[in-house]
TrEMBL record:
One of its GO terms (cellular component) is cytoplasm. The keyword Protein biosynthesis does not apply. Alpha-N-methyltransferase that methylates the N-terminus of target proteins containing the N-terminal motif [Ala/Pro/Ser]-Pro-Lys when the initiator Met is cleaved. Specifically catalyzes mono-, di- or tri-methylation of exposed alpha-amino group of Ala or Ser residue in the [Ala/Ser]-Pro-Lys motif and mono- or di-methylation of Pro in the Pro-Pro-Lys motif. Belongs to the methyltransferase superfamily. NTM1 family. The keyword S-adenosyl-L-methionine applies. This is Alpha N-terminal protein methyltransferase 1. GO terms for biological process: methylation. It comes from Nicotiana sylvestris. It catalyses: N-terminal L-prolyl-L-prolyl-L-lysyl-[protein] + 2 S-adenosyl-L-methionine = N-terminal N,N-dimethyl-L-prolyl-L-prolyl-L-lysyl-[protein] + 2 S-adenosyl-L-homocysteine + 2 H(+); N-terminal L-alanyl-L-prolyl-L-lysyl-[protein] + 3 S-adenosyl-L-methionine = N-terminal N,N,N-trimethyl-L-alanyl-L-prolyl-L-lysyl-[protein] + 3 S-adenosyl-L-homocysteine + 3 H(+); N-terminal L-seryl-L-prolyl-L-lysyl-[protein] + 3 S-adenosyl-L-methionine = N-terminal N,N,N-trimethyl-L-seryl-L-prolyl-L-lysyl-[protein] + 3 S-adenosyl-L-homocysteine + 3 H(+). The lineage of its organism: Eukaryota, Viridiplantae, Streptophyta, Embryophyta, Tracheophyta.
Length: 331
């Protein structure tokens, strides 16, 4: 839905006088001493123990004030509590309140970077065109394609991309004035598509509360909004949303990427996760990466952006490798 740039984070570090040791600036966090194995006495030799590598959720991160966290659990306990419904509601309300103060324009929803719109749509369209012929070869010949645009904002992605490829697009957006703008932008008289393509439904519902109709969607598109969800709600959303996919349907997630760990934006209450962090969450959601691709052509001061096509079934090549390994073990 929106981009976050690193210049804001850098300014916090400069003002606070702290060294820029953040994942988004290319350096790595040091593992605290308490994670290091104690040295064994030299007089007694022992067989070395296998050390489990830290997962991305266990690797440190920081917030936009420059504060460092030892791991994601520490950050989430502070931000949303541990089973504290009121504290989690405050997290989501602050995020909504932030975007309620943003103008309903392309420049507004893109955080002042409206000029990346063209590069964003171009890369997304190229990615979509590598997926649709493989997953839906009968599209336009008997298959009525339907998409859900999550975090749709003013309908930017729907108008510039999705509505040209899908017969119906539903929009999901919790910020009411963005959604009202989307209704205007996507009115038939403001579109240059045939009457066979339309924006069908407009849902003013937060992502973490939405449950789609069963088997309605061929593609559920999630862009620049999943960072507002806590990890448990991220997993719950994708598990619920799987029921909304038609047979053969899939998710497309397009999101900012931290170099390692995570970066918490205190202002709009969102988190930028690393690629490895996302992959751990995908695994917990029961999702598999069908394709992925890096966004190109964005200014250097912005976070890297990656696109993932996610399926509920294991890709054939991966399944074949697992089967071959299993057969090898039984010989």
């Amino acid at each position: 839905m929106k981009t976050k740039n690193k210049s804001k984070l850098m300014s916090h570090m400069i003002l606070s006088g702290k060294a820029p040791s953040l994942p988004s600036l290319g350096s790595h966090f040091q593992i605290p001493d308490l994670f290091l194995a104690p040295k064994l006495p030299a007089r007694r030799a022992r067989t070395p123990l296998a050390v489990r590598p830290l997962t991305q959720m266990e690797i440190g991160g920081l917030d936009s004030d420059g504060r460092e966290f030892r791991n994601a659990d520490e950050m989430w306990r502070e931000e949303v509590g541990d089973g504290d419904h009121q504290k989690k509601s405050q997290w989501y309300n602050k995020g909504i309140n932030y975007w309620e103060g943003v103008e309903a324009t392309v420049d507004g929803v893109l955080g002042g970077y409206g000029h990346v719109n063209e590069a964003d749509i171009k890369a997304s369209e190229e990615f979509l065109n590598t997926i649709l012929p493989e997953r839906f070869p009968d599209a336009g010949r008997g298959r009525h394609l339907v998409a859900l645009d999550c975090g749709s904002g003013i309908g930017r992605v729907t108008k510039n991309l999705l509505i040209r490829y899908f017969n119906e697009v539903d929009l999901l957006e919790p910020v009411s004035h963005f959604l009202e703008s989307a209704r205007v932008n996507l009115a038939p008289e403001n579109l240059m598509v045939s009457e066979l393509h339309k924006a069908a439904n407009f849902y003013c519902v937060p992502l973490q509360e939405f449950t789609p109709d069963a088997e309605r969607y061929d593609v559920i598109w999630v862009q620049w909004c999943i960072g507002h969800l806590a990890d448990d709600d991220f997993i719950s959303f994708f598990k619920r949303a799987q029921a909304g996919l038609k047979p053969g349907g899939l998710f497309v997630l397009k999101e900012n990427i931290a170099k390692t760990g995570f970066v918490l934006d205190k202002e709009d209450k969102s988190i930028t996760r690393s690629d490895s962090y996302f992959k751990e969450l995908f695994n917990q959601c029961g999702l598999y990466i069908y394709k992925m691709k890096d966004q190109k052509g964005f200014p250097d001061e912005l976070f890297a952006v990656k696109m993932y096509a996610l399926t509920t079934e294991m890709p054939r090549q991966e399944a074949s490798c697992i089967r071959q390994k299993s057969e090898g073990l039984t010989l």
